[in-house]
């Protein structure tokens, strides 16, 4: 199978999604902030809403790969299981004494059980169900409901920890502790899953660098024409952008436009304030304003990167230039600033294009959806009241691996 994402808007052929699961039931009012959620979530409704998202994609001919299935198949490969256990089920989690017993269990556990553990985490009581009688200082000192392995509720946002950029993939270097382990699962999938193991593609980044080199997929947009737009944000630091840019340039990518964003929870990634909806056309949150950009291009030698700083008022022009266009169209919904801020908070600008001019958004952003429709964009909506509680919309909840070229 071929993997290639050469634009944000080409007809979507294959995408990785994660249907929310038991990891969501780990969220409580006390731990939600640490786990990067703004509220607890009603799992069954979130699953129904996610299924609607998947149904629209399927109706439009998109092939869906579910992350948990990919992980399950990957675990069937002995070397992958070993790698995942080395990375996730260490004595740091289970304690030194229980570790060998837990490890022996995990070496034999059905792949589907282990995949769920790697995503949803495991409590002491759940471990005891699998391993009655396992005893240790750690097991005696924690409560039944305490987690020995933490959950990964943000795997829902499949784009953030993995980005296909042109013909290669970046397993991203996550900023926050709550998301760092997501990359382990993706690394194993891309290395050992039969779909990817036999394919030849560059790994732009393997996600193993320290958080001071962080770069997250919500900040990465493959705008096309050999260019990539990357937000320097609450999550992505300039060091991370420079590192990725160097790899991309060595692989033939032509240009990176870095957008210097305001650092805030509401605008944690570039795709919370703007996404591409059609050829040369973006939806953009009014409150984002014009932002300074830095244009990066390959330098004269492989070690050099040519850097050009651009004033905020040139933002749209710089993006147009990267696309080889005279100008871009920026669709900003005319509405009062409170309304705009509310719709931005609810991922109004976070649309997923499934073809040029056809996007999926949350239904609740009625002003933005109406405006985009009036501008000729086909807007397909899904419910977002539960899914959005982690602050992410259709763009974040999807990791495209194959898009057809835009003519
Ligand atoms: N691209 C995105 O904006 N993703 C949303 C990430 C939400 C997640 N709860 C986080 O804080 O990382």
TrEMBL record:
It is found in: Cytoplasm. GO terms for cellular component: cytoplasm. It catalyses: L-arginine + H2O = L-citrulline + NH4(+). GO terms for molecular function: arginine deiminase activity. Keywords: Arginine metabolism, Cytoplasm, Hydrolase. It is an enzyme of class 3 (hydrolase). Gene3D superfamilies: Arginine deiminase (1.10.3930.10), L-arginine/glycine Amidinotransferase, Chain A (3.75.10.10). GO terms for biological process: L-arginine deiminase pathway. Pfam families: ADI (PF02274). This is Arginine deiminase. The gene is arcA.
């Amino acid at each position: 199978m071929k993997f290639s994402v050469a634009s944000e808007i080409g007809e979507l052929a294959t995408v990785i999604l994660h249907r929310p699961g038991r990891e969501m039931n780990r969220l409580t009012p006390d731990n939600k902030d640490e786990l990067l959620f703004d509220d607890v979530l009603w799992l069954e409704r979130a699953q129904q809403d996610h299924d609607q998202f998947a149904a629209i994609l399927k109706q439009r001919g998109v092939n869906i790969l579910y992350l948990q299935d990919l992980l399950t198949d990957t675990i069937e490969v002995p070397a992958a299981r070993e790698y995942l256990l080395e990375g996730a089920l260490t004595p740091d989690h289970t304690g030194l004494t229980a570790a060998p017993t837990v490890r022996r269990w995990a070496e034999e556990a059905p792949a589907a059980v282990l995949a769920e553990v790697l995503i949803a985490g495991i409590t002491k009581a759940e471990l005891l169900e699998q391993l009655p009688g396992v005893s240790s200082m750690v097991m005696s000192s924690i409560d039944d409901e305490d987690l020995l392995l933490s959950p990964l509720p943000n795997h829902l946002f499949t784009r953030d920890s993995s980005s296909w950029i042109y013909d290669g993939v970046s397993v991203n270097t996550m900023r926050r502790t709550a998301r760092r382990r997501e990359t382990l699962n993706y690394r194993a999938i891309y290395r050992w899953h039969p779909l990817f193991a036999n394919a030849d593609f560059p790994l732009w980044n393997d996600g193993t660098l320290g958080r001071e080199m962080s770069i997250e997929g919500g900040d990465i947009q493959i705008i096309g024409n050999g260019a990539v737009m990357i937000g320097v944000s609450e999550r992505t630091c300039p060091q991370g952008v420079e590192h990725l840019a160097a790899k991309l340039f060595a692989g033939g990518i032509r240009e990176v436009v870095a957008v210097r964003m305001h650092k805030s929870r509401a605008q944690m990634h570039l795709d919370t304030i703007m996404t591409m909806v059609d050829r040369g056309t973006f939806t953009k949150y009014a409150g984002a304003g014009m932002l300074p950009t830095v244009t990066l291009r390959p330098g004269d030698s492989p070690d050099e990167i040519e850097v050009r700083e651009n004033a905020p008022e040139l933002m749209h022009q710089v993006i147009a230039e990267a696309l080889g266009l005279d100008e871009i169209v920026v669709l900003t919904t005319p509405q009062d600033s409170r309304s705009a801020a509310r719709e931005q908070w609810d991922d109004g600008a976070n649309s997923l294009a499934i073809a040029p001019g056809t996007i999926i958004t949350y239904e609740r952003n009625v002003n933005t959806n109406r405006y985009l429709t009036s501008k000729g964009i086909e807007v397909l909506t899904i419910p977002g009241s539960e899914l959005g509680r982690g602050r992410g919309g259709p763009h974040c909840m999807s990791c495209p691996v194959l898009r057809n070229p835009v003519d």
